[in-house]
Amino acid sequence: MEKHGQVASLCLLLVFDAVELLNETVKVFLMQLLNFTEAVAIRRRSLEKLFQILDMYDALSGVFPDLEAMVMDEFVCTEAERVLAGLGRASKGTFMEFENAVKRETSSLC
């Protein structure tokens, strides 16, 4: 009976190690994706890029609940929240710049 307990303990250790390894692997790729997304959010704003920013915001906000449930590292979730906020600010700023450009254009026509 003791041998079965040792085998079960070993199996649990292997599963926990595999989960930890998977979490670390996902973290590396996720951080690369978040770094790319952040770079998009902070670059010069243009109307042509607005839909890309909105698509990235929509995609990240859509998977965020699953990300929080799957990723054990709080840092990754915090980074994802920060990047999501940056994308939101970038889209709002782009909308504001577009609004100002339209106002300038309309005032120059009058």
UniProtKB/TrEMBL annotation:
State the coiled-coil residue ranges: none
Stretch forming the signal peptide: 1-21
Annotated ranges, domain Exocyst complex subunit Exo70 C-terminal: 19-107
Pfam families in UniProt: Exo70_C
UniProt cross-references to Gene3D superfamilies, sorted A to Z = Exocyst complex component Exo70
The keyword Signal is annotated on this UniProt entry: yes
- What keywords sit in the KW lines? Exocytosis, Protein transport, Signal, Transport
Checking InterPro entries in the record gives: Cullin_repeat-like_dom_sf, Exo70, Exo70_C
Q: What does this protein do?
A: Component of the exocyst complex.
Q: Which family does it belong to?
A: Belongs to the EXO70 family.
Q: What is this protein called?
A: Exocyst subunit Exo70 family protein
